[in-house]
Amino acid sequence: MGLVDKLAPVHTANELLTKFGSPLLLLYFRWYVAWVFLKAGLFKINDWELTLTLFEYEYAVPFLPFELAAYLATFGELVFPVFLIAGLGTRFTAIALSVVNIMAVVSYYATLAKGAGLVWHYLWGSMLLTNIIYGGGFLSADRWLRSKFQQQVML
After folding, report:
1. For residue 137, which phi and psi values (nearest 5 degrees)?
2. DSSP of 56-103, one letter per residue?
3. Which residues contact 96 (CB under 8 A, 6 or more apart)?
4. Which of 21, 95, 140, 147 measures 20 to 30 Å from 56, CA to CA?
5. What is the pTM (predicted TM-score) of this model?
6. Angle at which helices 22-46 and 66-86 pack, to 10 degrees?
7. Whether 132 contacts 87, CB under 8 Å
8. pLDDT per position in the chain (155 positions), as tens?
9. Separation of alpha carbons 2 and 67, rounded Å
């Protein structure tokens, strides 16, 4: 039995893991990050006065008036996660949430850097980057829509 024959089961197992594991991992990344941002958006609209106060005095959003920054952040945290969960426009949505994530880090860096908060933003950024690179995967609305439109074009 040669080396190639000995490695064949490993190769087959790797193919199965890639075929079935990748879509599940991409789905998990989408749902996890979406839930984090959606919770933040829901918290913001739950107490809008507190949100405006935080954006005025605590967060240092560059180049934007605090009210506009509060509205944009809340919009991004409530709308984009819904699309990300469905896997609809996954790459665009992941880029949009990455911008929200980066703005949160830039605006609140001094406080985040003191504790472990910055690490979470790195994690979410990595998960979003994975979806930007690979898309939504097999378990996404993007995949379903692509298959529907490709069938119609072929007919």
Report:
1. 85, -170
2. III---TTS-HHHHHHHHHHHHHHHHHHHHHTTTHHHHHHHHHHHHHH
3. 76, 80
4. 95
5. 0.83
6. 150
7. no
8. 676 666 556 556 667 666 677 889 999 999 999 999 999 999 999 999 999 999 999 888 888 999 999 999 999 999 999 999 999 999 999 999 999 999 988 888 767 777 777 889 999 999 999 999 999 988 899 999 888 888 665 44
9. 69
